[in-house]
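User: My collaborator and I are trying to settle a disagreement about how two of our proteins should look. Neither of us wants to argue from intuition anymore, so we agreed to look at predicted structures for both before our next call. Could you fold the first one, then the second, and keep them clearly separated?

Assistant: That sounds like a sensible way to settle it. I'll keep them separate. The first protein:
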Amino acid sequence: MTDAKAERWKPEGHPMLGVRGSVALLQCATTLILVFSGINWSQTIPLAMMQFVSACTLLAQWDKSGRDHMYVVRGCASLVRAIVVLRTSACGRVFPPWAGCDAEPWRGHENVRLPFRCIHVLACVRQLANAWSLLNQYHLVGDGVTPDNGHRQLWIRARIRLAGVPIQLARFVLKIVLLDDTRYERGDVEVACNFVRAVLLIPLSAWSLNHQYYTSGSDPPPRSVQRGCACLELDHVDYNPSGQGGLHRAKSNVGLGDVELTETRPAAPADDADAETPR
């Protein structure tokens, strides 16, 4: 009975979805620490909500494959985050958001905060790129899928995610260098959260996307088609990425860089095949 129950609840999705879902929950927990510390509620409260939504969608896809609409939900969450970050860039940490707008750094006054406003703009662009990638993955089924590699947007989104490392590191360093001993000095909790995101949570999420890209190929690979159309497969079962034989990377479920090379040969010409056939 226990074995049957365990088999029933066995996740159907790629294991890396579970990894990213767990990381998203840790991101949400990190943001909640800021919320409970009373830090920047105009940004941290909606950020925690969107991180929780993203975590739920990832865990839902890990639990049961085929829930592609979760890409749309996660993309919308990224769009909301982009709007929140853009508003913070323009108006600062004013709470509630409708209480006013602190645009002094953009006007050349108290420009010690201007670098942080510029970083917020970069963070907004990153969230928009992440949303575009998620919606693109939903719209184009099997885009770039080969026997070795998964959807093209997994590779792209891994790089988008990794772009968060310099953003968080810049916040961590600049809060120490520029804001110490000023009236804008940040607390140790906030600075520590930036550091944890930069060196642990974001790299782990980016690695997970990259690893899923290299371990979720399809054999034979589907053609890139728009959602709603039948997914067509290539005519050739023996798919050769080069088309000319030689060495290519075999499908692997191991870590990055640990792949097996196999040698393939082009198909024999029809005349040669007939010549070898007994008459």
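The second protein, kept apart from the first:
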Amino acid sequence: MSFYIPGDKLFEYMVAYILRNNGYIAGVPRRKLGGRGTQHQVGVIGIDLNNSPFCLNTVLLVAARGPEPLDHTADMQLVRNLKATLLDLEQTLPSRRELIRDLLDNNRGDLFHRIYGGKKVKETLTVNYVGGVFVAGEFSPPAWEYANAHGIYVVHLPEFMAGQPVLHWYRRIRCQMSQILTEDGQLTLPGLAKKTKKSRISGKFSSCCGSPCRES
């Protein structure tokens, strides 16, 4: 069986990588976030581990949009959906206070997936939610103004990174991921193999072009 990762999901991975390189514990959550009466799909989540007294940890909820043609309606809907998610989660803080700082230990690498990896009906942590929209390419000015008016940050990423367009990095990531599994189903990433040593993964990621990757 072959798995194809679409471009918008790859862009979310890139945004999570950028956040992690800037001090956040970030990733693409494996579950939806539980609000009052519904579940919210969030593209990327970044946790700020600032432990100042009388301040809650900030959880950045990110809606990511890669390089696409300008669409005023889609951009406005993207911001509105994020605003609705923030409003719902802010009004669903648990009655019993549990802070992220209480979960910290010597192993911070698994903190993100300990929080956003399992199934939960509602969120159990008391945090400060902040919204952010990460885009590459043009973004609708009315949607940008709407985001500013509701305290949502808009981060404009360049369409060229390290001298190459974003679509080039999509292809590179797909090529690299196509080599994660060998023909006999063995994992080639040591860290991933350690996490899954008690189970076998069947399937194979589809490559970008069906040919081996080459450095450019």
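Some points you might bring to the call about the second protein. The longest strand covers residues 128-136. The two ends are 29 Å apart (CA to CA).
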